[in-house]
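Progress report, Aim 2. The chain analyzed during this reporting quarter is listed below.
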Amino acid sequence: MLEIVPAEKDDLILVQEVAHQTWPHTFGKILSPEQIEYMLDWMYSVETLGKQLSEGHQFFLVKEDGKAIGYLGIQVNYEPGKTKIHKVYILPNQQGKGLGKLLFAKAKEVAKANNQSFLQLNVNRENQPAIDFYIHYGFKELRREVIDIGNDYVMDDIVFEYPLH
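Predicted structure tokens for the chain:
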């Protein structure tokens, strides 16, 4: 059985586990192993995820038969009227089954329930499968940005936006 459930503080370890299984597959041809490890340590420590949760981020797990196979992390009113999709990943062996579409629908549902006008997200400009997915579902490129994340690493991203009205 497939379900999307809110992640509580005790569930953040599941978000971390899925990230550690997903990132090497997703970014292995884009980023160095050292940068992947740095970013996972930086973005996916249970402490960092817990701080985000306490600051109003919402996490959702997609589970199949009780096992976490993907997640979504969003922040309502990241900017006025905009919900930011910060994190959305699905285990490599679960991709292509429509789970991304389900998580995207969940992000839209939460954003609309909070009277938001847009969804916004960043995607690595070399991550063509993700870019293709977002364009297919109606996201439009808003801008490009390079974000210094420390340790001589950057996130070289495209910012996409999706209108909700």
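The chain has a mean pLDDT of 96. The CA atoms of residues 119 and 128 lie 20 Å apart. These observations will guide the mutagenesis work planned for the next reporting period.
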